[in-house]
């Protein structure tokens, strides 16, 4: 009996130790990301993946707290599963542990490890500036869709939202980190037969960004 109690105490202590608070800089990122009730924008989407054929197109996106993203566009739409216009809360609001990896001048890199087995991602390496708390890249390792890199570029006058995002990856055709929207028969024609992995990227350029602040 004492050994069981000791084991339960150790398991509880370990869980509490792992689910520690986020570092201040990641808490600041989360506060900024959750400060908005809704965000709307237009996105120019450019897909560069061998075997996938989608012309460059413009879509409209609306993100609203507690609701699924609303996306408008003509024909087939292909978007990344993660990395659009921030959306950092999906990584930072779950049970996780942040481990500092390295620092170089104004840049610091943290590895965030998911402690929730229900998430579709395992780890995310956040590279961000210490002075502005802006995330410039995320290396996302997933449970099923491999690993992909998200890079954000900001305009000189941008306070929080990036001007454009590039998502690059190498994955098997049926495990691409992409979300397909359109008629099934149209999407079936997108992917050519390919037994090897695919290397590609998707570019997102944002415009007409508007937002509504969350109530205090």
Write out key terms for the chains shown.
216 residues, outer membrane lipoprotein receptor (LolB), chain A, alpha+beta, ten-stranded antiparallel sheet
Q: Can you give a write-up of this model?
A:
The chain is 17% helix and 45% strand. It is an alpha+beta fold and 216 residues long. The chain has one domain (23-211): outer membrane lipoprotein receptor (LolB), chain A (Clam), CATH 2.50.20. The strands form 2 sheets. Strands 3-2-1-12-10-9-8-7-6-5 form a 10-stranded antiparallel sheet. A hairpin with a 6-residue loop joins strand 6 (107-114) and strand 7. The radius of gyration is 19 Å and the shape is globular.
């Amino acid at each position: 009996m004492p050994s069981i109690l000791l084991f339960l105490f150790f398991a509880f202590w370990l869980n509490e130790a792992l689910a520690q608070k986020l570092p201040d800089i990641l808490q600041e990122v989360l506060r900024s990301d959750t400060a908005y009730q809704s965000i709307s924008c237009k996105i120019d989407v450019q897909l560069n993946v061998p075997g996938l054929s989608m012309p460059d197109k413009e879509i409209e996106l609306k993100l609203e707290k507690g609701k699924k993203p609303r996306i408008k566009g003509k024909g087939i739409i292909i978007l990344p599963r993660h990395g659009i216009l921030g959306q950092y809360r999906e990584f930072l609001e779950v049970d996780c542990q942040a481990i500092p990896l390295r620092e170089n001048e104004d840049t610091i890199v943290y590895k965030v490890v998911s402690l929730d087995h229900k998430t579709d991602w395992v780890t995310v390496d956040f590279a961000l500036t210490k002075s502005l708390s802006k995330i410039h890249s995320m290396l996302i390792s997933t449970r099923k869709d491999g690993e992909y890199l998200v890079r954000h570029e900001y305009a000189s006058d941008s306070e929080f939202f990036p001007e454009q995002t590039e998502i690059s990856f190498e994955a098997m055709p049926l495990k691409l980190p992409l979300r397909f929207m359109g008629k099934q028969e149209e999407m079936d024609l997108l992917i050519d037969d390919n037994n090897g992995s695919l290397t590609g990227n998707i570019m997102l350029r944002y415009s007409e960004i508007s937002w509504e602040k969350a109530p205090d």
